[in-house]
Amino acid sequence: LDTRTHRLTALKQLLVVIQFVIPRMDTVQKVQECVSAIMDGLETLVMFLFVLETVIQMETALVQGCVSATVNGLETLVTFLFALQTVVQMETALAQECVSAVMDGLEIFAAMLFALTTVVQMENVLVQECVSAMKDGWGTLVQIL
Question: How far apart are CA 91 and CA 101, in angstroms?
Answer without folding.
Answer: 15
